[in-house]
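User: My advisor, Dr. K., asked me to get a structural model of this assembly before our group meeting. I'm new to this, so sorry if the format is off. These are the inputs:
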Amino acid sequence: MTGRGFAAPGMPGRMAVLAWSLAAAVSSGAPLRAQGAQPPIEEARLENGLRVIVSPDRSTPIVAVNLRYGVGSGHEAEGRSGFAHLFEHLVFQGTENLADGELERMVTEAGGVVNGRTNTDRTEYTEVVPAHHLERVLWSHAERMRRLVVTEEGLARQREVVKEERRLRVDNTPYGEARITVDTLAQDYAPYGHSVIGSMEDLDAASVAEVRAFHDRWYRPANATLVVVGDTSLDEVLPMVERWFGEFDSGPEPARLPPPPVGPRTDGERRADLEDPLAQLPITYVAWTLSPAGHPDLPALRILNRILASGESSRLYRGLVVDEGVATQIFGQVESRFGPGLFLLGALSGPGVDPAATESRLHTVVDRLVSYGPTREEVERAVNQLRAERASALSTVAGRAVAIQEATAVSGDPSAVGTGMRELTTVDVDEAHRVARRWLTDDNRTVVVARPVDRPR
Amino acid sequence: MRFPMFALVVATALTGSAAPAIAQDGDPREPPPLGTPRAFELPDLTRTRLSNGATLVVVPNGEAPLVSIEVILPGGQATDPEGLEGASLLTATLLRSGTTTRSYADIVGEFDRLGASFDAVADADWTRISLVVLTDRLDPALDVLADVLTNPVFPAVRLETLRRQAGAALATQRSRPDALARRVMLREVYRGHPYGRQTTEATLAAIDRTSLREHHARWYGSESALVVVAGDVQPLRVERRLEEAFRDWGGEAAPASELPDLRPAGRRIVLVHVPGAVQAEVRIGHRLPGGDADDWLALEVVAHHLGAVPTGLLHRRLREAFGWTYSATARAERRVGPGLLEVAFATRADVAGDALAETLRLIDEVRSRPMADSDMEAVVNFLTGVLPLRSETPGQVADRVSSRLLLGLEPEDVEGVGDRLRSLVPGEVRRAFADAVDPADATVVVVGDATTLYGDLASFGDVRVERPDGAPISIEDLRPARRSHPLSAVDLAPVTLRYRVTLQGRDVGELTREVRGDGDERTVRSRLALGPQILAQSVTFGAEEFDFRESSMTLEQPGVAVAGTVRREGSTIVGRMDLGDGPRRVELAVPPGVIVSDMLEIAVWLTELAVGTELRLPVASISSGTVTNATLRVEERTEITVPAGTFDVFRIEVTGAEAQTMWVRTTAPHLPVRVAPGDQPIVVELVEIGGAPAGLP
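Assistant: The format is fine. Below is the predicted structure of the whole assembly, which you can bring to the meeting.
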């Protein structure tokens, strides 16, 4: 479950890699290579609705296979929380023709890696393997899609594994609960009202029949998009996909989540003060609720987030860490999804620093940006950072596959992976200032503070 | 506003370029055959020496418009002088804080403006300075890199900031079970070795600008540096550019560092107590041979067989067979000196012992039985198959090249590694692992709630229990015990005691304690006035069994309001309290016979005492939510004088909970005549017995 996870303050600065990965290349003047050229895109669709997108890259004999299903925790009915994420585990438990554990063994013995990720909107599985293993991996996806075997014993075991995962990521991780609280407190969009990992009660109550029905409803060709990046081509991939997926029924029409609310919240600041028994230092999260992915203000919001929180020359780092010494770490992230997204800032207070002082200073820095806007140099810096980050994210076949999935999910068009950068470079100082005034308001703000448990004698 | 994802899926379903279905010719019961493996070679590298003596390796690779530059210097954490642990790391992190011509703001502003990621760290063996930058921004970024490398000035203000941040990082490390477990494991595996020395708040405090300048002068000379450039570059051009950028970088060769061997030290078990932790974080560590040992490839094969996710034995058993853990891994860490085998998993406390036993059994299995040919083949397939996957980005290629060169080995071509892997036979591999690893010599570190974990761990050997800050604690003090003596307060008569409170001989306050009650309950009310601060407490207990019933406290102090009320309900203490940071609920499970801290003194009144008497009882701390044992031992009989007069007294040392020294009357009831709390520099002395109860809440 990585879709919503950035609980730990130990790793600031790297977290926005996927959040903005829909943004892509090409601005005026510079040579294509220097800008990170548009990855080539070839695509087709099977009669049963399975969408197939291939981006060839012959430089290294490997391929990334990414199959994304349009089902996430947001699609779960009441009493079924955690179901979507549960399949991240169940698909590895065996299918009609793959024994328990065989899938992972097959991929990793080839030197490959296999991974599953779930968020509110989707579930996706990625493998990276030597190119000559491609067809075998595609076959394994067909197994997972329509020939999954869910047994009583397997379900019981994976429930325990998921509970361990929750303990590891939330209950036994400093700030884990606080980060989940930010997500659920900041918006009222019903599908996002529970955490991706779900409630243990719902998982405990899940019967094998219910789990099978959930799989049967969502793991269907018409609800799936396959992206293959690397040492191959559509001509090579398509016959393989036909061979293994062609016979499947398309399944019911993919269900839409209800339309999310648009525009900043106007109902006032929300806040939660938590005690975190694992924390040694207080943490302050300040978040603003955003409109869904694809909103035209998002490029400017990404730039503003960078200006505030990325790097040692960012405003918050200079203001809170260097000048005032009220924080030791700063981090920022723009999370964009089908439903309401988040413009998140965070600060870890130093030892002996009252988090109220950290928070107050953070608000002052943000207010100043909202009042006076950014400088031209700041905008240029943020765009350069986003360009470099994008080049880095697209430098692996797996990263490119994820970026193509994101671009497809947001705009419907996989080649949008190569156009997002243009949107960024059209943001000027005035546009950034306008967007800051619109979104970064007190009424649209959510504050979550988690402090260590006091232990006086 | 758009609702892109689903709207478009439907739209394109109607218009998309559907390919015609072709006949089903695959039998899904069998995985399809593999295609033909495609040749892969690492890109050619060029190796030269810059005119300042540094070794330069250039590896052009990848399609991304990125360049990765890594400068590696021989001063790692193992070279930090004793008492100055952290000097290498602070030197590296302070590089960007200012040079003779650029301020800190100039440097970070320049890197940020170019979108360049600059990093400088010190690991056990090396200092690594890295820069990743867009190709079209390489030139200006390189100038800044050369400047910070050669002309750092280590400004005092920035040193203070980074020292504070490093201190906060240590605190964070102690709060993360995984980081804490690894830290303790490294300390134990490398005890007595330079690799085992660790940065602490004290060593950070001892580092000054002189230590940093000395470290820089000693270890940052160009003569011993390795510079690896990978990515979107042309070797000749980059060499010319580096010659120019590094023209002012010189310096002597670094001193040769001597790393001693490590001797077997027997099994060590350390349990780090985190009260209430829901999981046990487990690390098993074992020293391995030095990085230039011939057996390393074999050790990597076994480590992979044991701990790869998801095919390794640990994952298959601990996660898939038993569901005990989310992830269990093992890895072999290669260093210049003795390497490290590290096994890591987190599990529920109730199965931690079983999981540990199973892990040690698996380690023993791989050292006593050769791997099956099929397992061996699987590992070798993985290690050869993974080569292209791990050579994708400029940074990966740079690491691949530099990690070999730094161990004094030649970079290997892909064919060479594959051939050597395929030539290994299971018997040889087993022997190499058995020579290097012995479960009886492993270090086991568990971070979790010691009160639930101790019993299981003790069956594996002697267990050292410590707090997250490393201070040792006794398990006896953590395990809620039954009372060692029956206690009854039926004969407790009403009394009022007045004490003075002194700090270094000066009067600073007053304490009044009053016992009242009849029937089956007794109540003790206390009022402590310390300057403007007034603490009022009341505790009620059953007379017959001396059992806790309820208590309340308020603290009045300008600007602070602290209050709480709790009561006993069966085997739980419940209530509410506010320590000045907002109200919260109290719910604490307690063992039979538990008391709260205000009853400790009364317990002494009620016990028959003689020199050598030891009284033991569980004490609940409401504020920290823990139950800890207090042990009271009568150490001697003596005579002391206090304002109320001269008394024949027993001196009692209290350890575990509520550590303090008490001097109590030798005649019953054993009223305290003097008390010296263990955690505050004050002394409380008896002024008057009897008196009026006026002024009590």
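One thing worth pointing out at the meeting: The first helix of chain B runs from residue 4 to 15.

User: Perfect, thanks a lot.
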